Amino acid sequence: MKLEPFSNETIKNLEFWRKYYFEHLSVKNASKHTIRNYKRIIDEFIEWVFIENENCNNCISLKTFNRFVFTSFLSSLKEKKLSDKTIQTYLAVLKSFFMFITEENDEVIDIYQYLEKIQVKVAQKEIVTYSNDEINKIKKAVFDLLESKKISYSKYKNALIILFIIYTGMRAEEALNLQANDIEISEDIIKFKVKGKGNKERILYLSVDFTEYINKFIQLKKKHNIKSNYFFASQKGTKTIYNTILRFNRDVILQKAHIFDKRKVGLHTYRHTLATNLVNENVNLETIKEILGHTDIKTTSVFYAKTNEKAKKKALKQLFS
Prior knowledge:
This protein is 58% helix and 5% strand. The protein is mainly alpha-helical. The chain has a three-stranded antiparallel β-sheet, covered by helices on one side. Helix 12 packs across helix 13.
């Protein structure tokens, strides 16, 4: 089955909706990273439509979009050897874009219906976590830096960010977005207001024992005259870059902890480790979901399934030993 060409009007309409859609995302305070990725994917789709474009009477318009349009585009991505995981991301972005068009257009054009049931099956990726021995070595490396008498502002800041991530399970980007007024220290607990994906706010906590490290960091900021709304501001007062923390974790923290497994260099490994440990402590899934800021409890349940599988293997080994 051959795809019919698209009309010139279709391209004009898509470009109009593209502008309107990104204005909408900006109003919703979507992150720059999200907007950049969404633009790349939507622009690639529009470019694909443009290549298939002709000036004809029977060309495809927005009103005549159908499931085959989208499956053809996804097939073109497979021909480029993109992974199923990447194609799944493209599909999610297109669903968001065309859901917006469906909801906002005045002509009652329901394009989303053709995308709604399209799915890309992705093999479940192994969840990598640190062992108890590894996480203890990492914590020692972090505390050794924080308790060092001679340490630069940047190194102290980066080590404190890693501490926050280890003990709260917040995403690295969430830590970098923390504002000074998002942190509240009381006599018995340290409280954080964290803005996660979709700008959804949740509350996280740290032990009051870590107050001294936070206060020391605040004093370092004053010493270097760093004025910024970002709590973890760079020395220039700007938001700290994600890759800076990623490199620091890989080249400093993990090196000091003698952990060289390339699968474990990602900052998400800390979240995975915390989630798995919480499951092992029999914390209920709804609570873990709230701590990690998952939208869907199915995402959280993956950690339960993984941990439960380990428990079964251990029990059976004991049974037959």
